[in-house]
Structures are given as structure tokens and as C-alpha cells.
Amino acid sequence: MHKKSFVWVFKAAAFLAVLLVTLFFLQRLLMPKYMSDIVEGALTAEYYEETTGHEVLFVGDCEVYENFSPITLYEEYGISSYIRGSAQQLAWQSYYMLEDTLRYETPRVVVFNVLALKYDEPQSEAYNRMTIDGMEFSKTKLDAIKASMTDRENTLDYLFPILRYHSRWSDLSAEDLTYMFGKDKISHNGYYMRVDVRPAEGFPEPDILADYTLGSNAMGYLDKMRTLCEENGIALVLVKSPSLFPHWYDEWDEQIAAYAAQYGLDYFNYEKLASEVGIDYNTDTYDAGLHMNLTGAEKLTSYFGRYLKENYELTDHRADPEYQSVYAEKIQFYDYMEAVQRKELSEYGEIISF
Amino acid sequence: MEALLKILTNLHPEVDFETSTDLVDGKIIDSFDIVSIISEINDEYDVVIPAEEIVPDNFNSAQALYELIVRLED
Amino acid sequence: MLFTSYSFIGFIAVVFLLYYLLPRKCQWPFLLAASYTFYFIASPSYLLFIGATTVSTYMTGRRLDALKETQDAYIKANKGSLSREEKKAYKASMKAKQWKWLLGCLLFNLGILAVLKYTNFVIANFNGLLRMFGSGGQISFVDLVLPMGISFYTFQTMGYIIDVYRGTCRAEKNLFRLALFVSFFPQLVQGPISRYSDLAKSLYERHDFDTRTVAYGLYRILWGYFKKAVIADRILTAVNAIIQNPDTYQGGFVFVGMMFYAFELYADFTGGIDITIGIAETMGITVAENFRRPYLSKNIKEYWNRWHITMGTWFTDYIFYPISVCKPMLNVSKASRAKFGDFIGKRVPVYLSSFAVWFTTGIWHGASWNFIVWGLMNFVVIMISQECEPLYKKFHNRFHVKDKRWYGVFEILRTILLMSSLRMFDCYRDVPLTFRMFGNMFTHFRLSELHTEAFLELGLTGADYALLSVCLLLLFAVSLIEEKKGSVRDLIFAAPEIVRYAVFYVLVLSVIIFGAYGIGFDQSQFIYNQF
Fold first, then answer.
1. Lowest mean pLDDT, pick from A103-112, A121-130, C512-521
2. For a 10 Å CB count at each end of chain B, is N or C smaller?
């Protein structure tokens, strides 16, 4: 009986290695890059490029990442901040976004936009992907996946995104090749800039709901956020941005106000406080009242920044040489983008490439 | 044996039943043919070929078929 | 569990690993456990039915063997003292006893199948009759769900017990071994329908890990997934768009739907069987082939020798022959030959048995008139081509085209069109609609309607069509090679070693990248909505 040959084990292992490497590269190629058209998908991952810390953290959906400008916060108050926002970020995703951030740093203040609390269940697979795909792999990411999955999703599709995006083989573009291993920055510490103007025209009368109670699942995650902040000595601030739509019902407003009062949290409804902030819905929004444009965001940030400065012990980083050089670059990019956008606006009458 | 060959040749005049040994496997006769053959054998030899004997071994050659008939006559 | 699901792939990976990690003597018991686990996961409450079939068949088998042994012993013991007539009478009475047991087993198990599968169909038709006679009363439908694979495992098991009765094989003495034969999980989804004497040769044997066998099996599985995921699941989108909207898709598109369905069914069915046979092969178990390049058939008879082979042979061996050569039928045949002459007399057994075969084949496929009519249409076409044989012979004697290549191609295309047309009964909602759409294909045919934009509205992109075209060519090439030269696998493995790794590599990547699975395949992805 001749000896058993185990050479095949090595061959099989080599084959597997080659296969896995190929799949790794193909996965990189096939995943959407979000560098043009819908850039919001790139927001989550941009956070990990930061080299300096942040004492203020914003979490939430577009009402957060389109309405606050961390650059303004730095320029006017020296406050370091980051907006960990994403498209239709749901309450549980905000919680896990916070938990994920805490793996890297501990901010002093966390700001959460409460609109997302109107959604009590998973909503959209596409937006789930845009929020979660960019997260670094961790237990937090796994929890976020489980909490976010819609019926037809599978954890394996998140762990091996090639299983989800393989069908993009027929939609590949040059962008997929260019950005395989590195992406361009599209935000400013998480702020998505738009300089165009489109005045608000009013929205249809909101529907009358059968039940105004905010869902227990969503509120549960608000609780978890509050507890997590308490455990880490972080101050949680609740805000409702000045966005006019989706409609934020008074009944919901009362519930949040009550919640804030119960736990000693500050809660600001900037939709109601819009005039005090100085927001003009004719000049300060780029999509008829859904989100602020650059002017509006800077106004809101300026106002909010004063509250932050007066109520929390936040470092003025403008004196720190490290922050100076890092933010000098950021400010340059910020001004540059503003200039390019304004140029496009004057040339074409609309923003095209952002 | 002659009677059997006559039955077979009547069905497929173009086939040489004396020498062929792959009547079933070579798809020279099909299931319809087999039914006809069995029916005529029943007439000629008064033998009932049961379904379980309808296997290629018994039908691949005229000789094998004849041996089957002989066996069943006992 | 669908073949093309993560859970199934995970399941077979685990089964494969454990099969070779466990001690050899545990292999077939492990497969039994795996099969029942598979069944439990897929439909837990119906383990009862497959269990009932197994136990009832086991007991019947043991009984039949016991009766045979008694018979043999008696005859041996009384060798000298029995006269020929006495021996015959004794044998006949023993046979009758065995027949009673067989009949009981068949009625019980086929009864289970019939009740679960056809009750609602019968009720629906009964209600139709009631309505026709103006009665207001309607029987309500029963809430019955079909246990997975019941059509397959019931027929496979009944084949076994009939074989035992006939003496083709001995009864399985071990209940659990029989249980594995009944429930062998790769076969539960869509067959093949195995014969006990075939499958038992390798099912219970101890298998050592052999790289060649395993590699062959993996190849087979992969090829099956390629056909299913890349081809079948992709083109299904277009097929559904056409056949679910008969008001929109008429004329030329009926034909398109018919041909797309022919492509889809081939890839799906042969792909699934490849996966089944491949899984068995990785464990050293040989399962019978079910397809042999069916689309290269030159006529309908040849087609049914090449398509769903195990079903064809099952119906031939257990329905066609028993009916056509049983004593009563032989008498009927004799009588009709006497009364109506040879022409009719010869045809009586063949026609009656064929009718029975095709009626039951139709109804076995599904509890609806569509399938029954489909089966009977096959019967009609086969009988017509049978009757036309003398005409064909005359034609070929006159024109000498039989060996010409172009004539062969003509026959192949003709058969593909014929079988694809018959399969329209699979597609449309009911029988009248199917006939209407078939006619519509001709009456509403407008070449101008078959433009590119229309095809792109079926749910497939230009890239999809390009990919499908490549796949079609690939399938055609593989089929030709297999038909003329033999196994493509053998060719690959005979080539330098790097080739088999390269082909495997390409196949795996193709399934992962081009497979039509997952959410991404939904065209409407990122609906830019309220953020």
C-alpha cells in the first residue's frame, strides 16, 4: 500500500488562496464608489480618515449632515466636531454609529436629530447599505446589520458585499476602477455642501395620524444612546433641524420635550426657532425647504455653536498647531468646493457634479 | 425458433435477427415493438411474458428471447 | 430549501465534511440523519408521511420475501410428492397472497399522494360540475400542503416494492437502510427516480476520500449551479414577463416566450440534476443520469429517451409494460384481432397502455388540466408519428436525405419546436388560454414588434442578453462534444493539471459574479427619495 499523497491539500490551498484574492479584488471593483451622483454613500467611511479628535459628534440623517457645518464651528469657536450622518440614518443606526465612534474616541457632546424616531422599523435596503457598508468591521457593525436588515436581506450579504453587488458587473464605469482602493473626500467633517438656492414654496397639509406615539423600537434606541452617553460622561443634546419636510408633528415634539425634561436633556426644535436663528426659507435652502444650503447651515451652526460654547467645556483648538495645520487644509478644501459650486451655478444655473 | 424469427422479421424486415445482439441497447426495437412481440409470442407459444422479464438481457437477441420462452413454458 | 440559497450550500458543505470526517461505518447512517434533518428544515410536519411510506413499504417488503421463502422451502421439501398441477396451483395461491400485500402497499402510499395532491383538484372540478347543473352548493377547499418531494419519493419507493414483488431484488432487511433509500436528500427536490438495485450498489458502501471522485463531483455541482444561477434564474425574469402578461405579449412574443422557456427549463432542470448527481458523486455515490442532450433529439420518441430519463423508464417499466402485457390485456388484444383484424388488434394494447402512461405522466406533473392535456398531447403526437412511420420510410427510400447533415439539423430543430410548443401548457394559466395563445402566435405575428426596446422591457439588459448568448453557445458546444466525443470532464482532467484548476476558477467566479441571485438583481435599486 503506497503512502497517501497529501500534495493535493497544498494544491487545493493554493487554489483557494488565488480564488479568495481574486474575489477580494472583484469585490473592491464591484462595490459602488459613491464618488459621483449619489455621494452620500461615501459618508460613513470618510470618518476613519480623520487624524484629529472631535469633541462634538453629530449623528443622524440628512437633517444633520446637510444642516450643520463643522468647519464653521471650528472657524468661529475653535470647536472640533464631526457629523457621522448618512442617508436616512435610522435611530438604531445612529446608536451604533455612536457606539462605533466610541471605539476610536470619546466626544464631550453628542447631538442627535430626532426626526429619525418617526421610523420604528427597517425601511430601505438601499439606504441600509449606504449607511452600513462603510463601517469598519466590528461587533458593533454586526449588531447594526442585525438591527437594520429588511426581510429580504441576509447577514452574509453584508459580510461579503460581493454577494450583493455582483450584479453591478454590467454597470461598471471608469469610476469603479479609479476608486478601487482610495476615495476622494466629498464632505467636510461629514457636512454635505450645497450653495444653490431654491426658496421654500410650502408643503401639502400633513396627514392626520391615527396614533402619534413614537415607536417603542426607535425610542428604545434613544434610551440606549442616552445610557451610553451617561456611561461615558457624554452630554446628549436632542435637536430637530429647521428642515420643513417630513413633517414633525407637534404631538411628537411634545413627546420628545417630555423625554428630554424627564432625563434632564436639552432639546431644541430649530424648525420652531428658525426666525430666532435668523433662517430665511427664501435664501437659506437649496431644495425648497427640505435642507439648508451653505448659508443656512452656517447660520444654524453659528447659533448652535454659541449654545455649545456657553454650556460645555469645549477646547478652543484654534491655538493648537496640529489642529491649525489640519484644519487649514480642511478650510482650503471647503472654500475650494464653495468656489467650484458657485462657478457651476453661474455657468449652468444649477449644480451638476455634486 | 423459426416462428419467433418470423414474428420478429414481420415487425422489422430490415433487421437481421439471426445475428444481432443489441436489439434493445442499440435501439433497434423499442417499447412498442416489444409489446407487439410479446402479444404475438402469447398467440404463438401460449406463453405469458411477465413485465419483470422485460429486461435488455432477454430481448437483446432472438436467441435470448427464445431461451426465455422455453424457460417460461416449463 | 432552494438549491440556490446560502443555507443549502452551507448544508451540503457541512454534510460533505462530516461524511469524510466520521468513521466509515457511520457514513450511510449519517446520510440518513442528514436527509431527515434536511426534510425537517424544509417541512417538519410532513416527516410523518415519509415515515409512513418508509415503514409500510419496509413491512410489505419483508412480508413478500417471507412468503417467497416459505414458497421455496415448501416446494423444495415436497420435491418428489408434488404434481405439476399442484405445484402450479400452490405457486398461484402464494402469488395471489403476495399480490394482496403489494396492492395494499401501493394503495396506501399512492393513496397518500393522491389525497394530498389531488383532493383540491377533484373538488374544483366537482364544484365546476355543480355549477354547470345549476346547483348553488359548493364544496370548500381543504387546507393541504404537499410534503416536499412526495411525488418523487413515493414513486421511487413504489418502484422498489414492485421490484421486490417481481423478484428483481430482495427486500431490504434493515429499516434504516430502506429509510435512506426513500429519503436520500439530494433526490428529494427534483429526482432522479432511482431503482433500488442501482442505487443500493453505492449508497451504503463505505467510501474513502478520493481526490478524483470528489473533484469530479465538485465539477458537476459547479456546472449545475452555473446553469441554474447564471442562465435559468436570469432568463426566468423575461419568461415571467411574457407569460404572466398574455394580453401585452402576443404574436411574435409568444414564440419568444416559448423559446426562452425552453432554454430556462433546460438550464434549471438539468442544472438541478447536475447538482444532485454531483453531491452524490462527491460522496462516492452513483445516481442515475436523467438527461442525455435532449435538445439534440431528432424526434419525439428519442426526446423522451433523453429528457427526464428516470421518469420515462419508471413509467415504462411499472405502468406501460404491466398494462400492455398483462393477461387481461393480452386477451383483449386477441379478441380485437379476431373481431377487427390485425391492424386494429395489434394497436389496441399499445394505444391503451400509452394512453394510460401519458395520462398518468401528465397528472403526476401536477394537479391541473394543463398537465393532463399536456400529457395527452404528447400521447397524440407520439401515436401520430408512430402511424406515420411507413410514410417516413417511403419518403426516405425516395429521397435519401436521412444521412445528410442538414436533414439531421432540420429534424433537431423540428423536435425542439415541437416540444417547446407542447410545453406551452406549463406557461399559461389554463388550457383554453394556452390554445388561444398558440394560435395567437401565428395570427398576431408582426416582425416589427420584435425590436430591441421591447426586449429590453422584459427585465433584462443588453449585457444580460449578451451573457445569455455566450452561455447558449457554451451549452451548445458542450452538448456537441459530449454527444460526439464523450465527457467534457474527462477531457478537462486529461489536459495539463493547470487546466482543471483554471476551468474551476472561471466557473466559480462566473457563478458568483454572473449568477442572477440576490437583491442586486432588482433593477429598481437606489430610488432617490427622501433622505
1. C512-521
2. C
Range of the domain at C222: 210-287+451-517
**Domain-terminating residue out of C421, C441, C461:** C441
Question: How far C480 CA lies from chain B's nearest CA (Å)?
Answer: 20
pLDDT at C189 over 90: no
pLDDT in tens, B16-42: 888 888 899 888 898 999 998 998 888
Partner-chain contact C166 B52, CB within 8 Å: yes
Strand partners, A111: A58, A237
In a domain, C528, yes or no: no
C251 backbone φψ class: left, alpha, beta (φ>0; ψ -120 to 50):
left
pLDDT recorded at residue C530: 35
Beta strands, E only, A149-301:
235-240, 266-269
Check CB contact of A162 with chain C, cutoff 8 Å: yes
Structural domain contains residue C301: yes
Q: How many structural domains comprise chain C? A: 3
- Considering only alpha carbons, which residue of chain A is nearest residue C462? A170
DSSP one-letter code for C495: S
Nearest to A246 among C512, C528, C530 (CB): C530
In terms of C-beta density within 10 A (0-12 exposed, 13-18 middle, 19 or more buried), how is residue C248 classed? exposed
* Domain-terminating residue out of C177, C209, C241: C209
Same domain, C215 and C117: no
- Give the residue on A whose Cα is nearest the Cα of C510: A166
> Are B51 and C333 within 8 A, CB to CB?
no
pLDDT digits (tens, 9 = 90+) for B52-64: 899 999 999 999 9
Pick from C168, C325, C386: CB nearest B49:
C325
C384 touches chain B (CB under 8 A): no
AA identity, residue C348: V
Q: How many domains does chain B have?
A: 1
Query: ipTM score here?
Result: 0.93
Structural domain span for residue B57: 2-73
Report the pLDDT value the prediction gives residue A3, as an integer from 0 to 100. Answer: 57
pLDDT bucket at A243, cuts 50 / 70 / 90: very high
Task: Record the cell numbers describing residue C130, joined without a space.
Answer: 355543480
Q: Could you tell me if C282 and C313 lie in one domain?
A: no
What is the CATH classification number for the domain harbouring B16? 1.10.1200.10
Inter-chain touch C324–B43, beta carbons under 8 Å: no
Nearest to C515 among A23, A38, A166 (CB): A166
Structural domain includes residue C165: yes
Question: Among B35, B38, B69, which would you mutate to test the C interface (most chain C Cβ atoms within 10 Å of its Cβ)?
Answer: B35
Kindly state the helix (H) or strand (E) to which residue A58 belongs, with its residue range: strand A56-60
CA–CA min distance C233, chain B (Å) = 36
What's the whole-number average pLDDT of chain C?
92
Q: Are residues C75 and C144 in the same domain?
A: yes
* List of chain B residues whose C-beta atoms are within 8 Å of the C-beta of residue C318: 51
Domains of chain A: 39-203+210-348 (3.40.50.1110)
The arithmetic mean of pLDDT across residues A5-30, rounded, is: 94
Q: What is the mean pLDDT of residues C314-319?
A: 96
Whether the pLDDT of residue C528 is over 60: the answer is no
Interface contact A170, partner C, CB < 8 A:
yes
C251 and C305 both lie in a single domain = no
Residue C445 half-sphere exposure, CB side, CA atoms within 13 Å? 8
Helix (H) or strand (E) holding C508: helix C497-514
